């Protein structure tokens, strides 16, 4: 619960048996915790943590980050060279995971599964010319690119079918009932709690403490919070 969250945040900031930092407002705790969630997710998705583990490089990473994985069936328009999506999840999107798609051609009306690689936009002309890398129905391979919150899946002599984006969404931002959000001036009527497992929440608490401690120039708490968030990760 968020009441427990606040207690833990204050406990990690205050010196033992003191209330030195009880003047921090509730919205500051909320902002720091939500910022800590994003930083923790980006670091562990990328593999920038002390164990150099990215999003699915260990069972722990799979287990910790799976609540954020989502699938979206893509719709869009078709040109002579690519399918372009028109329903990118702008409001919730955090990081690309994969694209799955099927394809049909004149000889094979039954859809077959395609392997879709994410490629660099700058390399599209080279990939389309390369006989080993261009879209090929026989090999069941093609590539996609991303730009301006759209996804382009390239084709050649075949039709893309059932494209699906798998992505990591942003974690839900916590809210505390009655705590005014200074950015929106709105006052939530009910709590929104953290969606991660309790052990991950403990890491994010340490991360949030480090952020707040840095803001108030409390060096010891900042170092301890940052170190605890990583060494127990």
Explain what this protein looks like in three dimensions.
This protein is 33% helix and 23% strand. Helix 5 runs antiparallel to helix 6. With 233 residues, the protein is of the alpha+beta class. The protein is elongated and about 75 Å long. A hairpin with a 3-residue loop joins strand 2 (76-78) and strand 3 (82-85). The mean pLDDT is 93. It has six helices and eight strands, in the order H-H-H-E-E-E-E-E-H-E-E-E-H-H. It has helices at residues 2-13, 26-46, 59-65, 124-129, 198-215, 219-231, and strands at 69-73, 76-78, 82-85, 93-104, 112-118, 141-147, 150-154, 159-169. The longest helix has 21 residues, at 26-46. An eight-stranded mixed sheet has the order 1-8-4-5-6-7-3-2, with no helix packed on it.
Question: What's the structural blueprint in terms of helices and strands?
Answer:
Layout lengths: L1 H12 L12 H21 L12 H7 L3 E5 L2 E3 L3 E4 L7 E12 L7 E7 L5 H6 L11 E7 L2 E5 L4 E11 L28 H18 L3 H13 L2
């Amino acid at each position: 619960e968020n009441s427990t969250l606040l207690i833990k945040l204050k406990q990690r900031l205050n010196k033992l048996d003191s209330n030195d930092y009880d003047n921090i407002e509730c919205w500051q705790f909320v902002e720091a915790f939500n910022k800590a969630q994003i930083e923790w997710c980006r670091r562990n998705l990328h593999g920038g943590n002390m164990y150099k583990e990215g999003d699915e490089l260990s069972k722990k990473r799979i287990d910790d980050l799976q609540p954020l994985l989502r699938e979206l069936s893509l719709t869009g328009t078709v040109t002579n060279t690519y399918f372009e999506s028109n329903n990118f999840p702008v409001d919730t999107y955090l990081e690309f995971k994969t694209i799955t798609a099927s394809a049909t051609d004149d000889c094979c009306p039954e859809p077959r599964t395609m392997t879709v690689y994410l490629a660099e936009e700058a390399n599209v002309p080279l990939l389309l010319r390369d006989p080993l890398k261009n879209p090929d129905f026989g090999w069941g391979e093609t590539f996609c690119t991303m730009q301006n919150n759209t996804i382009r899946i390239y084709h050649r002599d075949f039709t893309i079918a059932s494209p699906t984006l798998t992505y990591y969404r942003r974690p839900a931002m916590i809210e505390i009932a009655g705590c005014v959000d200074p950015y929106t001036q709105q006052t939530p009527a009910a709590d929104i709690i953290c969606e991660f497992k309790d052990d991950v929440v403990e890491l994010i608490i340490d991360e949030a403490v480090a952020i707040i401690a840095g803001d108030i120039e409390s060096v010891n708490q900042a170092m301890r919070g940052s170190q605890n968030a990583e060494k127990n990760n």
